[in-house]
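Bug #77: duplicate submission created two jobs. Keeping one. Sequence:
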Amino acid sequence: MQWVVFSYSLPSGSSSTPRVTLWRRLRRLGAISPTGNAYILPSRDECLEAFQWLAREMTQAGGEALVMHVQQFEGLDEGQLASLFNQARQEEYAAVTEQLDELERQVAASDDPATLQSALDKIQRQYAEIARVDYFHSPQGPLVAGQLERLAQRLAPAGSPVPVIAPATVARYRDKRWVTRPRPHVDRLACAWLIRRYLNPRAVIRYAQRPEPGEIAFDMNEGEFSHQGNLCTFEVMLRAFTLDEVGLSFLAEIVHEIDLRDGRYQRPETSGVDAVLRGWYLADVSDAELETRGIALFEGLYKALATQVPGMAQPQDEATNSHSTTGQERE
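Kept job's structure:
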């Protein structure tokens, strides 16, 4: 395995501001420093670029910086380095767990749901920042994610209906034709991506106001797959087909928030995805092009999450490469 290393020095008489700023940036990147002023990250494009920008900033502050590619460290093998990364993430996750434990105690004693939800949203954002740099999938990550989900359920409005989703099998729907409303937005685009990735990469997806005989309608009135309770269609399909990877759950949170805007989830990617989708609509992109772009968008997001979310399966390239044709119908 390869690594990128960032090393720097600042003039002894320089102010503390650049040092503090650098320390905070390195911490947000999830870098570790086994010794001295050398900081290590896995050799990924985004990590290399981040170190390169830091080196430029150090030079502008009057210091010196060096970014290196390293194949192997003397006295530290890959397993030991991964353990150091996981130890750092475990300490950060432990801090989140303490906050969640305290919030659970407050939930039992408080009758102010708005304040409690605000506190939970803040903790969720903190967790997302840690998960983003959890390069070696610390075992603490899924435990914290589960505690967050349980607490979110406790804070859900009393009496909220829990929809019962009928189970579905991939085999039954593999060769079906699909239909949804024209001008697909986030929920329908996410469902189209799910259909092509998990059910049939060459599925026919048509955009119309009414289904034809034999078609499976989704995100439409009286569609076989549509909103249920406070779940968007993408969430319903995930539950129906028992697609429960953590990464898909994160995708569902993004889709849910953009589609329903109920403030239930606080994923850091949400605002960016929302802005991209709004831009396509302002550009009056066709339905076929919206689907093509939407599938590429969710595929890229899926792959990005696959590098940082524990327990997530690697993407299936067959589905990824099979939707290059466009049109209102795809045979």
